[in-house]
Amino acid sequence: MPPDPNKPVIAFNGAITTQLTPLPHRSFAYTVTFALTSPHLHLLARQKPPLHFHPYQDEYITVTEGLLGIECSGVERVIGVADGEVRFQKGEHHRLFPHFGHEGGGEDGEGDGEKKTVFVLSGEESGEVFQLDTVFFQNWYGYQDQFVREGKEPSLVQVMS
Predict the structure, then answer these.
(1) CA distances (Å), 149 to each of 107, 114, 146, 158, in order?
(2) Are 80 and 110 in contact (CB under 8 A)?
(3) In this structure, what DSSP letter does residue 51 have?
(4) Cα–Cα dist 2/45, whole Å
(5) Is 18 helix (H, G, I), strand (E, B) or coil?
(6) In this structure, are residues 64 and 119 in contact, taking their beta carbons and an 8 Å threshold?
(7) pLDDT digits (tens, 9 = 90+) for 92-151
(8) How many CA atoms lie within 13 A of 95 on its CB side?
(9) Tell me, what DSSP letter sits at residue 52?
């Protein structure tokens, strides 16, 4: 049974909410909200999710509120609304994580005292059978929940899925 597109995916006891968002010319798009006041999100920021890559699609991030930490090919940075759309090319190892500081990514103190970060996460249409989809993201956030909150070891099968 396919996931209900109107039902948000909620992880880390409400710290992360992901809602399917229609976006033309993309195979998927989600609006993701990080609740920066959640202690579960602070745990995620300390342990950071595993690096991963997508072999068939470029992935895009557009921050619409607050600041977001990203790492791509070994380089960490902070992005904000002023950075526009950021692309991770297929095959590039990357990860996203909450950012609680005040430096980087924006103008005029953007991110100071923010209670949430909101960004759109999307992927290009690749035409490949194994492209990212809603089921992947439900599993990915569930996997991160186990990996970070419960301290379980990464599974090679899950990471390669």
Answers:
(1) 33, 23, 6, 16
(2) yes
(3) P
(4) 31
(5) strand
(6) yes
(7) 999 999 998 754 444 433 445 679 999 999 988 877 666 665 566 666 666 666 666 666
(8) 17
(9) B
Confidence of residue 89 (pLDDT cuts 50, 70, 90): very high
53 burial via Cβ count (<10 Å: 0-12, 13-18, 19+): middle
Q: How far is Cα 141 from Cα 2, in angstroms, rounded to an integer?
A: 17
Instruction: Please tell me the predicted confidence (pLDDT) of residue 139.
Output: 64
> Which tokens go with 12?
């880390």
- For 59-84, the DSSP string reads EEEEEEESEEEEEETTEEEEEEGGG-
Dig out the tokens for 15 from the structure: 């710290």
The two three-digit tokens of residue 158, written as one number: 């899950």
Q: What is the pLDDT of residues 16-48, one digit of tens each?
A: 998 989 888 888 889 999 999 998 888 777 778
Which of 51, 59, 64 is CA-nearest to residue 28?
59
How many residues comprise the chain? Answer: 161
Cα gap 86→158, rounded to integer Å: 26
First to last CA, the chain: 19
Residue with tokens 């509120």: 65
